[in-house]
Write a structure and sequence with these properties.
Length: about 200
């Protein structure tokens, strides 16, 4: 604890600081709970997208063997050109939101390629879209987790350091002021006793 002045002014300053910390602490605790809840929600969304991706891949299992017939047909067939994102705000944290992806599909000769290539393009675009969406959720979780760590540190600082320090400072100052008042009363009595004695003599 930093050195404190044992004065009434310091007592008022410490009392005001304690009130301020007690006023802000519930807001920080609420923000911490909100961030924890948001992280759980983001995690659930990311897992749902991962499950969709697995379902699409499982559906491909029936005809994925066709890819093996000529890998050159599908190699570099679809590429992600850009990921379109928006932005949102969660408890004061700016996060990206997934909107869509833009893809580059390599031109193929429809007469020279088998019909399943069109289905392969659709499935690949869907998988890439789901992967990009999941990546955006992972970024959301990363940003919100950073804010949660900062908020948790502030809650701990208030609960375990600032509030106890103020309480201890107030206690010490009150004792010092009380001792000073007692000393003043005692000195006053002694002085009064001397003046009465001098008058009697």
């Amino acid at each position: 604890m930093a050195k404190i002045k044992l004065t009434k002014t310091e007592l008022k300053a410490q009392t005001d600081a304690l009130k301020r910390f007690r006023r802000f602490l519930p807001m920080l605790q609420l923000k911490k709970q909100q961030l924890q809840s948001e992280i759980a929600g983001i995690t659930a969304k990311a897992e749902a997208v991962a499950a969709k991706e697995r379902a699409v891949r499982d559906a491909l299992d029936r005809w994925v063997g066709l890819f093996a017939t000529d890998e050159r047909l599908v190699e570099g067939l679809v590429k992600v050109k850009s990921v379109n994102t928006g932005s949102a705000n969660i408890a004061g944290v700016a996060i990206p939101t997934f909107l869509s992806i833009e893809t580059d599909v390599r031109k193929v000769d429809l007469w020279a390629t088998p019909a399943w290539v069109d289905d392969a393009v659709k499935a690949t675009v869907e998988i890439l879209s789901l992967q990009c969406e999941r990546a955006v959720y992972e970024e959301q979780r990363r940003l919100v987790t950073i804010e949660l760590q900062t908020t948790s540190q502030r809650v701990n600082l208030f609960e375990k350091v600032k509030i106890p320090e103020c309480k201890e400072a107030i206690r010490v100052i009150k004792i010092a002021i009380g001792d000073e008042q007692t000393s003043a009363v005692t000195r006053g009595k002694i002085a009064k006793g001397r003046s009465v004695k001098e008058e009697e003599e």
